[in-house]
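Progress report, Aim 2. The chain analyzed during this reporting quarter is listed below.
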Amino acid sequence: MNFENLAGYGPSLWFAAMVVLLLLETVVPGVHFMWFGAAAATVGVLALLLPMSWQLQLIAFSLISILTVFLVRRSSGSGTNAKSDEPDLNVRGAQYIGRKVVVADAIRNGRGRVRVGDTIWAAEGEDAAEGTEVEVTGVNGIVLVVARSDAE
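Predicted structure tokens for the chain:
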């Protein structure tokens, strides 16, 4: 079967494509096929109202599909960094900023380890002896940046 035979079905082919795409939307997770289904419906309506060759219908479907996908992405904010009520959720070390911790392995030449709860973290900051209380002031990757606690 070639495209000429398919073109004989006219707009009904686009409406059938719309149904198939919308059925796929219900089966496949996410929102992917809905916009292509909308494009197929639009081309079906255009083919009913205007005499169009199958080539022009295919071009219209392609352009409308691309347009709907980009418009939906822009209006939904997809692809942008959404604001979160927990901005430090996936930056575990940042959750400890401001917390006082104890030096587990002495900090020498700016490097050492601190105990946070039951976990040992790499730390960097001014030299401090084992057992010294320090405060977490920042995070450098997976290394906690510490400074001597104000209490000392």
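The longest strand covers residues 100-108. The chain is about 40% helix and 25% strand. These observations will guide the mutagenesis work planned for the next reporting period.
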